[in-house]
Predict the 3D structure of the following.
Amino acid sequence: MIEHEFTSRIREILQKHFRDSAEDVFQQSPLLQYLNIKTRSATRGAKARSSFANIYAVYVLVEDYVKREFHKSGKYLRYEGARFSDLFKRQRELPFGRKLQNHALNHRMNEEFKKFFSQVSYVPILRDVDKNRYWINENLLKVRVGKTTHNLAEAIIEITDEYMVVKRQAFDRFIKTCERLKSLPRSDKEEAEKFILGLLAPNVDARIFEIVSYAILKSFYHDQKVYFGFDLDSIKPEQLKLYKTGRTNANDGGIDFVMRPLGRFFQVTETLDVKKYFLDIDKIERFPITFVIKSDASVETLKARLKEGAEKQYAVAAIVAKYMKCVEEIINIPILRERFAQAVAQGYLQNILDEIVRQSKVEFNYEEDESDEPESSEDE
Protein backbone atom coordinates (compact mmCIF):
# COMPACT_ATOMS: atom_id res chain seq x y z
CA MET A 1 0.00 0.00 0.00
CA ILE A 2 1.22 3.49 -0.88
CA GLU A 3 2.37 5.58 2.07
CA HIS A 4 2.49 9.38 1.93
CA GLU A 5 2.05 12.28 4.33
CA PHE A 6 -1.76 12.31 4.18
CA THR A 7 -1.89 8.56 4.91
CA SER A 8 -1.26 9.28 8.58
CA ARG A 9 -4.28 11.59 8.63
CA ILE A 10 -6.42 8.85 7.05
CA ARG A 11 -5.26 6.46 9.78
CA GLU A 12 -6.18 8.98 12.50
CA ILE A 13 -9.70 9.30 11.11
CA LEU A 14 -10.10 5.53 10.82
CA GLN A 15 -8.82 5.11 14.36
CA LYS A 16 -11.50 7.49 15.58
CA HIS A 17 -14.24 5.56 13.78
CA PHE A 18 -13.09 1.95 14.14
CA ARG A 19 -10.71 1.88 17.13
CA ASP A 20 -8.76 -1.38 17.31
CA SER A 21 -10.10 -2.51 13.92
CA ALA A 22 -8.89 0.59 12.09
CA GLU A 23 -5.81 -0.92 10.46
CA ASP A 24 -7.64 -4.09 9.39
CA VAL A 25 -10.40 -1.96 7.88
CA PHE A 26 -7.82 0.09 5.99
CA GLN A 27 -5.99 -2.96 4.66
CA GLN A 28 -9.17 -4.77 3.61
CA SER A 29 -10.95 -1.87 1.89
CA PRO A 30 -10.14 -1.22 -1.79
CA LEU A 31 -12.17 1.99 -1.63
CA LEU A 32 -10.11 3.39 1.25
CA GLN A 33 -6.91 2.37 -0.47
CA TYR A 34 -8.12 4.10 -3.64
CA LEU A 35 -8.75 7.29 -1.64
CA ASN A 36 -5.28 6.93 -0.14
CA ILE A 37 -3.80 6.83 -3.64
CA LYS A 38 -5.85 9.79 -4.84
CA THR A 39 -5.03 12.03 -1.86
CA ARG A 40 -1.25 11.76 -2.09
CA SER A 41 -1.03 15.33 -3.45
CA ALA A 42 -2.66 16.75 -0.31
CA THR A 43 0.52 18.08 1.30
CA ARG A 44 2.53 18.75 -1.84
CA GLY A 45 1.18 22.24 -2.47
CA ALA A 46 -1.21 23.72 -5.02
CA LYS A 47 0.93 22.85 -8.02
CA ALA A 48 0.85 19.10 -7.32
CA ARG A 49 -1.64 17.02 -9.27
CA SER A 50 -5.05 16.99 -7.62
CA SER A 51 -7.81 14.43 -8.06
CA PHE A 52 -10.98 16.29 -7.30
CA ALA A 53 -13.14 14.83 -10.06
CA ASN A 54 -12.90 11.16 -9.09
CA ILE A 55 -12.78 11.83 -5.36
CA TYR A 56 -15.85 14.05 -5.54
CA ALA A 57 -17.74 11.48 -7.61
CA VAL A 58 -17.41 9.08 -4.68
CA TYR A 59 -17.98 11.80 -2.10
CA VAL A 60 -21.33 13.08 -3.42
CA LEU A 61 -22.72 9.54 -3.62
CA VAL A 62 -21.53 8.60 -0.14
CA GLU A 63 -22.83 11.93 1.16
CA ASP A 64 -26.26 11.15 -0.31
CA TYR A 65 -26.06 7.70 1.30
CA VAL A 66 -25.28 9.18 4.74
CA LYS A 67 -27.84 12.01 4.52
CA ARG A 68 -30.56 9.44 3.93
CA GLU A 69 -29.15 7.36 6.83
CA PHE A 70 -28.77 4.18 4.81
CA HIS A 71 -25.66 3.42 6.91
CA LYS A 72 -28.08 3.05 9.82
CA SER A 73 -31.27 1.70 8.21
CA GLY A 74 -29.73 -0.91 5.92
CA LYS A 75 -32.40 -0.22 3.28
CA TYR A 76 -30.15 0.95 0.45
CA LEU A 77 -31.12 -2.07 -1.65
CA ARG A 78 -34.55 -0.51 -2.26
CA TYR A 79 -33.31 3.05 -2.89
CA GLU A 80 -34.37 4.51 -6.24
CA GLY A 81 -30.96 6.14 -6.64
CA ALA A 82 -29.65 9.70 -6.57
CA ARG A 83 -30.50 11.94 -9.51
CA PHE A 84 -27.66 12.94 -11.79
CA SER A 85 -28.63 16.63 -11.68
CA ASP A 86 -28.44 16.67 -7.86
CA LEU A 87 -25.05 14.95 -7.80
CA PHE A 88 -23.68 17.16 -10.55
CA LYS A 89 -24.85 20.32 -8.77
CA ARG A 90 -23.38 19.15 -5.47
CA GLN A 91 -19.98 18.41 -7.05
CA ARG A 92 -19.81 21.99 -8.27
CA GLU A 93 -20.62 23.39 -4.85
CA LEU A 94 -17.51 21.77 -3.37
CA PRO A 95 -14.14 23.55 -3.12
CA PHE A 96 -12.36 23.53 -6.51
CA GLY A 97 -15.38 21.81 -8.04
CA ARG A 98 -17.28 24.57 -9.82
CA LYS A 99 -16.17 23.54 -13.30
CA LEU A 100 -16.02 19.77 -12.96
CA GLN A 101 -17.59 17.77 -15.75
CA ASN A 102 -19.76 14.64 -15.67
CA HIS A 103 -17.13 12.15 -16.82
CA ALA A 104 -15.98 10.94 -13.40
CA LEU A 105 -19.53 10.06 -12.35
CA ASN A 106 -20.28 8.39 -15.66
CA HIS A 107 -17.22 6.23 -16.20
CA ARG A 108 -13.77 7.64 -15.40
CA MET A 109 -13.78 6.93 -11.69
CA ASN A 110 -14.84 3.31 -12.27
CA GLU A 111 -12.28 2.84 -15.03
CA GLU A 112 -9.44 4.14 -12.90
CA PHE A 113 -10.55 2.10 -9.89
CA LYS A 114 -10.45 -1.06 -12.05
CA LYS A 115 -6.89 -0.21 -13.15
CA PHE A 116 -5.73 -0.07 -9.55
CA PHE A 117 -7.85 -2.97 -8.28
CA SER A 118 -8.37 -5.32 -11.21
CA GLN A 119 -8.89 -8.25 -8.85
CA VAL A 120 -11.92 -6.59 -7.17
CA SER A 121 -15.20 -7.74 -8.67
CA TYR A 122 -17.11 -4.55 -7.75
CA VAL A 123 -17.03 -1.06 -9.25
CA PRO A 124 -17.74 1.88 -6.92
CA ILE A 125 -20.40 3.71 -8.96
CA LEU A 126 -23.57 2.02 -10.19
CA ARG A 127 -25.69 3.75 -12.80
CA ASP A 128 -29.08 3.42 -14.49
CA VAL A 129 -28.49 5.16 -17.81
CA ASP A 130 -32.17 5.31 -18.80
CA LYS A 131 -33.31 6.94 -15.55
CA ASN A 132 -30.10 8.86 -14.82
CA ARG A 133 -29.97 7.44 -11.31
CA TYR A 134 -26.76 6.66 -9.45
CA TRP A 135 -25.69 4.60 -6.43
CA ILE A 136 -22.47 3.99 -4.52
CA ASN A 137 -21.76 0.26 -4.48
CA GLU A 138 -22.61 -0.66 -0.90
CA ASN A 139 -20.42 -3.77 -1.13
CA LEU A 140 -17.42 -1.44 -1.09
CA LEU A 141 -18.72 0.52 1.90
CA LYS A 142 -18.81 -2.54 4.15
CA VAL A 143 -15.77 -4.32 5.59
CA ARG A 144 -15.98 -7.34 7.85
CA VAL A 145 -13.33 -7.65 10.57
CA GLY A 146 -13.84 -10.72 12.73
CA LYS A 147 -17.53 -10.91 13.53
CA THR A 148 -18.18 -7.19 12.99
CA THR A 149 -19.18 -5.52 9.73
CA HIS A 150 -18.02 -1.91 9.60
CA ASN A 151 -19.63 0.74 7.39
CA LEU A 152 -17.09 3.17 5.93
CA ALA A 153 -19.47 5.91 4.78
CA GLU A 154 -18.95 8.44 7.58
CA ALA A 155 -15.18 7.86 7.60
CA ILE A 156 -15.01 8.46 3.83
CA ILE A 157 -16.89 11.74 4.25
CA GLU A 158 -14.48 12.87 6.97
CA ILE A 159 -11.37 11.83 4.99
CA THR A 160 -12.57 13.75 1.94
CA ASP A 161 -13.52 16.80 4.01
CA GLU A 162 -10.01 16.83 5.47
CA TYR A 163 -8.49 16.54 1.98
CA MET A 164 -10.52 19.58 0.88
CA VAL A 165 -9.25 21.59 3.85
CA VAL A 166 -5.61 20.68 3.22
CA LYS A 167 -5.82 21.42 -0.52
CA ARG A 168 -7.53 24.73 0.15
CA GLN A 169 -4.77 25.71 2.55
CA ALA A 170 -2.15 24.77 -0.07
CA PHE A 171 -3.91 26.86 -2.69
CA ASP A 172 -4.21 29.80 -0.31
CA ARG A 173 -0.43 29.64 0.11
CA PHE A 174 0.01 29.49 -3.67
CA ILE A 175 -2.12 32.60 -4.21
CA LYS A 176 -0.39 34.47 -1.38
CA THR A 177 3.00 33.60 -2.89
CA CYS A 178 1.88 34.94 -6.26
CA GLU A 179 0.56 38.12 -4.65
CA ARG A 180 3.80 38.59 -2.71
CA LEU A 181 5.92 38.10 -5.83
CA LYS A 182 3.78 40.67 -7.64
CA SER A 183 4.72 43.24 -5.00
CA LEU A 184 8.48 42.70 -5.27
CA PRO A 185 10.49 45.69 -6.51
CA ARG A 186 11.11 45.63 -10.24
CA SER A 187 14.84 45.23 -9.51
CA ASP A 188 14.28 42.01 -7.56
CA LYS A 189 12.26 39.75 -9.86
CA GLU A 190 14.55 36.71 -9.91
CA GLU A 191 12.47 34.94 -7.25
CA ALA A 192 9.28 35.45 -9.29
CA GLU A 193 10.95 34.07 -12.42
CA LYS A 194 12.14 30.95 -10.58
CA PHE A 195 8.66 30.44 -9.13
CA ILE A 196 6.97 30.54 -12.55
CA LEU A 197 9.63 28.32 -14.14
CA GLY A 198 8.95 25.82 -11.34
CA LEU A 199 5.35 25.62 -12.54
CA LEU A 200 6.54 24.45 -15.96
CA ALA A 201 7.25 20.83 -15.06
CA PRO A 202 5.83 17.42 -16.04
CA ASN A 203 4.59 16.70 -12.50
CA VAL A 204 2.65 19.96 -12.04
CA ASP A 205 -1.14 19.88 -11.72
CA ALA A 206 -2.64 19.92 -15.24
CA ARG A 207 -4.81 22.95 -14.51
CA ILE A 208 -1.91 25.00 -13.12
CA PHE A 209 0.17 24.04 -16.16
CA GLU A 210 -2.58 25.14 -18.55
CA ILE A 211 -3.01 28.46 -16.74
CA VAL A 212 0.73 29.19 -16.72
CA SER A 213 1.04 28.18 -20.38
CA TYR A 214 -1.78 30.56 -21.26
CA ALA A 215 -0.28 33.44 -19.26
CA ILE A 216 3.09 33.01 -20.97
CA LEU A 217 1.76 32.60 -24.51
CA LYS A 218 -0.68 35.48 -24.12
CA SER A 219 2.19 37.83 -23.26
CA PHE A 220 4.48 36.29 -25.88
CA TYR A 221 2.05 36.80 -28.78
CA HIS A 222 0.30 40.01 -27.81
CA ASP A 223 2.68 42.51 -29.44
CA GLN A 224 3.09 40.51 -32.66
CA LYS A 225 1.27 41.89 -35.68
CA VAL A 226 -0.28 40.52 -38.85
CA TYR A 227 -1.77 42.51 -41.71
CA PHE A 228 -5.34 42.04 -42.87
CA GLY A 229 -7.62 43.66 -45.40
CA PHE A 230 -10.22 42.87 -48.03
CA ASP A 231 -8.21 44.73 -50.64
CA LEU A 232 -4.79 46.38 -50.93
CA ASP A 233 -6.13 49.78 -49.89
CA SER A 234 -7.74 48.51 -46.66
CA ILE A 235 -4.86 46.42 -45.28
CA LYS A 236 -4.10 47.36 -41.70
CA PRO A 237 -2.05 45.90 -38.82
CA GLU A 238 -3.77 43.66 -36.24
CA GLN A 239 -2.14 42.56 -32.99
CA LEU A 240 -2.34 38.88 -32.11
CA LYS A 241 -4.49 38.18 -29.08
CA LEU A 242 -4.83 34.86 -27.28
CA TYR A 243 -8.12 33.98 -25.58
CA LYS A 244 -8.72 31.23 -23.05
CA THR A 245 -11.90 29.53 -24.18
CA GLY A 246 -13.16 28.33 -20.79
CA ARG A 247 -12.49 25.75 -18.12
CA THR A 248 -9.45 23.51 -18.04
CA ASN A 249 -9.75 19.76 -18.68
CA ALA A 250 -13.07 20.32 -20.45
CA ASN A 251 -14.68 18.38 -23.26
CA ASP A 252 -14.70 21.45 -25.50
CA GLY A 253 -13.77 20.02 -28.88
CA GLY A 254 -10.03 20.34 -28.53
CA ILE A 255 -9.88 24.11 -28.06
CA ASP A 256 -8.22 25.47 -24.90
CA PHE A 257 -7.02 28.74 -26.41
CA VAL A 258 -7.93 30.53 -29.62
CA MET A 259 -5.90 33.25 -31.29
CA ARG A 260 -7.41 36.29 -32.98
CA PRO A 261 -7.36 37.34 -35.77
CA LEU A 262 -5.74 34.17 -37.17
CA GLY A 263 -8.34 31.77 -35.78
CA ARG A 264 -5.57 29.49 -34.55
CA PHE A 265 -6.51 26.72 -32.09
CA PHE A 266 -4.42 25.52 -29.13
CA GLN A 267 -4.91 22.34 -27.09
CA VAL A 268 -3.00 21.75 -23.83
CA THR A 269 -2.30 18.11 -23.04
CA GLU A 270 -0.11 15.86 -20.91
CA THR A 271 -0.64 12.65 -22.83
CA LEU A 272 0.94 11.11 -25.91
CA ASP A 273 -2.09 8.91 -26.54
CA VAL A 274 -2.55 9.18 -30.31
CA LYS A 275 -6.29 8.45 -30.04
CA LYS A 276 -6.74 11.50 -27.82
CA TYR A 277 -4.89 13.81 -30.22
CA PHE A 278 -6.73 12.63 -33.29
CA LEU A 279 -10.06 12.67 -31.46
CA ASP A 280 -9.48 16.36 -30.79
CA ILE A 281 -8.63 16.88 -34.46
CA ASP A 282 -11.75 14.97 -35.59
CA LYS A 283 -13.99 16.99 -33.25
CA ILE A 284 -13.19 20.15 -35.21
CA GLU A 285 -13.22 18.40 -38.61
CA ARG A 286 -9.46 18.17 -38.96
CA PHE A 287 -8.78 21.85 -38.49
CA PRO A 288 -5.09 22.32 -37.62
CA ILE A 289 -4.27 22.48 -33.88
CA THR A 290 -1.20 23.66 -32.00
CA PHE A 291 -0.54 21.21 -29.15
CA VAL A 292 0.99 22.53 -25.93
CA ILE A 293 2.44 19.37 -24.38
CA LYS A 294 3.46 18.99 -20.75
CA SER A 295 6.71 17.24 -21.59
CA ASP A 296 10.45 17.94 -21.56
CA ALA A 297 10.95 15.72 -24.63
CA SER A 298 12.12 17.47 -27.78
CA VAL A 299 9.64 18.52 -30.46
CA GLU A 300 11.23 16.04 -32.87
CA THR A 301 10.81 13.20 -30.35
CA LEU A 302 7.18 14.13 -29.67
CA LYS A 303 6.37 14.30 -33.38
CA ALA A 304 8.08 10.96 -33.97
CA ARG A 305 6.05 9.34 -31.17
CA LEU A 306 2.82 10.76 -32.56
CA LYS A 307 3.62 9.53 -36.05
CA GLU A 308 4.63 6.10 -34.75
CA GLY A 309 1.36 5.85 -32.84
CA ALA A 310 -0.61 6.99 -35.88
CA GLU A 311 1.05 4.35 -38.07
CA LYS A 312 0.15 1.63 -35.57
CA GLN A 313 -3.45 2.78 -35.40
CA TYR A 314 -4.18 3.49 -39.05
CA ALA A 315 -1.53 1.56 -41.04
CA VAL A 316 -2.34 3.66 -44.15
CA ALA A 317 0.26 6.25 -45.11
CA ALA A 318 -2.25 8.67 -46.67
CA ILE A 319 -4.41 8.73 -43.51
CA VAL A 320 -1.39 9.14 -41.25
CA ALA A 321 -0.13 12.03 -43.38
CA LYS A 322 -3.54 13.72 -43.28
CA TYR A 323 -3.68 13.60 -39.49
CA MET A 324 -0.07 14.66 -39.00
CA LYS A 325 -0.68 17.65 -41.26
CA CYS A 326 -3.27 18.83 -38.73
CA VAL A 327 -0.58 19.15 -36.05
CA GLU A 328 0.21 22.78 -36.79
CA GLU A 329 2.87 23.19 -34.11
CA ILE A 330 4.09 21.45 -30.96
CA ILE A 331 5.03 23.63 -28.00
CA ASN A 332 6.82 21.68 -25.28
CA ILE A 333 8.10 22.78 -21.86
CA PRO A 334 11.52 23.95 -23.15
CA ILE A 335 9.78 26.17 -25.74
CA LEU A 336 7.49 27.60 -23.04
CA ARG A 337 10.56 28.41 -20.97
CA GLU A 338 12.14 30.19 -23.95
CA ARG A 339 8.98 32.19 -24.61
CA PHE A 340 8.74 33.05 -20.94
CA ALA A 341 12.31 34.39 -21.02
CA GLN A 342 11.48 36.49 -24.08
CA ALA A 343 8.32 37.85 -22.44
CA VAL A 344 10.26 38.72 -19.27
CA ALA A 345 12.95 40.47 -21.33
CA GLN A 346 10.19 42.60 -22.87
CA GLY A 347 8.95 43.58 -19.41
CA TYR A 348 5.89 41.32 -19.11
CA LEU A 349 6.71 39.40 -15.92
CA GLN A 350 4.13 41.39 -13.94
CA ASN A 351 1.49 40.73 -16.60
CA ILE A 352 2.19 37.00 -16.48
CA LEU A 353 1.90 36.91 -12.68
CA ASP A 354 -1.34 38.93 -12.82
CA GLU A 355 -2.80 36.51 -15.36
CA ILE A 356 -1.78 33.43 -13.34
CA VAL A 357 -3.47 34.84 -10.23
CA ARG A 358 -6.61 35.90 -12.09
CA GLN A 359 -7.08 32.62 -13.95
CA SER A 360 -6.21 30.51 -10.90
CA LYS A 361 -8.77 32.24 -8.70
CA VAL A 362 -11.50 31.61 -11.24
CA GLU A 363 -10.41 28.06 -12.07
CA PHE A 364 -10.15 26.91 -8.47
CA ASN A 365 -13.33 28.64 -7.32
CA TYR A 366 -11.30 31.05 -5.19
CA GLU A 367 -13.73 33.84 -5.93
CA GLU A 368 -17.22 33.62 -7.35
CA ASP A 369 -17.67 34.49 -11.02
CA GLU A 370 -21.03 33.19 -12.16
CA SER A 371 -20.93 34.99 -15.51
CA ASP A 372 -19.08 32.18 -17.26
CA GLU A 373 -20.96 29.29 -15.68
CA PRO A 374 -21.54 26.75 -18.49
CA GLU A 375 -24.65 24.72 -18.95
CA SER A 376 -24.54 21.28 -17.40
CA SER A 377 -24.86 18.28 -19.61
CA GLU A 378 -25.52 14.65 -19.01
CA ASP A 379 -24.11 13.65 -22.38
CA GLU A 380 -20.63 12.33 -22.92
Summary: Residues 248-253, 368-380 have pLDDT under 50 and may be disordered.
